[in-house]
Write a structure and sequence with these properties.
Layout lengths: L3 E6 L13 H18 L12 E12 L8 E8 L7 E9 L2 E14 L31 H5 L5 E9 L13 H9 L13 E7 L8 E8 L3 E7 L3 E9 L1
Antiparallel strand pairs: 1-3, 2-5, 2-7, 3-4, 4-5, 6-8, 7-10, 8-9, 9-10
């Protein structure tokens, strides 16, 4: 079993005004540990980026028992799950001492840089040996079901978002983490209660390129907040629910 671990202190640049780790930064740490570990496992940029193949996330989820706090020393741990045809599951844990704060999972895949279509990794000789520990959270699911029953959804706000330079990543589209900054801005300040004891789920369906403008709708149900960014079709969906 091959894990990746990194221990560091949460700095002021990483947190919100409430002194808890910003959600987008936590997911950014997950991304960076995934890339670093994948390279260490022999699937570096010489096999992907330099050959026009891009790593992207299709779905992800996190069960947050407690968000890391400012000046707290935490350990990010990550490991690959068994490959699922075109998907590379990646599991995460965040701990503080013996306390597990967060468990997460993301489904990664590879796309062709020119066609923007997914590829079959075995055709390119790309393999990652994954494993399971038995402590993983379930693999992230499609969120479409939550947006089909409109009777349960209450639209609370709507806004336009145009992809800006600072949100574009190495793949030439809005980085997944930035969606969380954008939708957080749609939550009224007086309703923000943090992410302790919260389930976060997201799926990314259509990339948002520089200059694209989408409509983002914020919804409420009896027990969750939901967000959807779309043009004539859905670009991303996010669901946040207290556990």
């Amino acid at each position: 079993m091959d894990y990746f671990e990194k221990t560091f202190t949460i700095h002021s640049r990483d947190v919100t005004r409430h002194r808890e780790l910003r959600l987008s930064n936590m997911l950014g740490f997950f991304q960076e540990t995934s890339i670093t570990h994948t390279e260490a496992l022999g699937v570096g940029r010489n096999k992907t980026l330099d050959k026009g193949l891009l790593w992207i996330i299709a779905r992800q989820s996190a069960e947050i028992t407690r968000m890391p706090r400012y000046d707290e020393e935490v350990t990010f741990r990550s490991w690959p799950g068994p490959t699922m045809r075109i998907f590379f599951p990646r599991h995460y844990e965040v701990s503080s001492g013996n306390e597990i704060l967060v468990r997460g999972c993301a489904l990664w895949m590879l796309i062709d840089e020119k066609t923007r279509s997914f590829i079959f990794p075995d055709e390119y000789g790309i393999e990652i040996d994954g494993f399971l520990t038995g402590n993983e959270i379930p693999e992230p699911r499609s969120l479409a079901i939550w947006f089909k029953n409109t009777d349960d959804l209450r639209l609370v706000s709507e806004s336009l978002y145009t992809a800006r330079f600072s949100h574009i990543d190495i793949n030439g589209h809005v980085n997944n983490c930035r969606y969380f900054d954008v939708v957080e801005d749609m939550i009224p300040t007086e309703e923000y209660i943090g992410y302790d004891n919260t389930l976060i789920e997201a799926e990314y369906l259509t990339e948002i390129r520089p200059g694209d403008t989408i409509t983002i709708r914020a919804y409420r149900t009896d027990d969750a907040r939901l967000f959807e960014g779309r043009t004539d079709r859905s670009c991303f969906r996010i669901r946040m629910k207290k556990m």
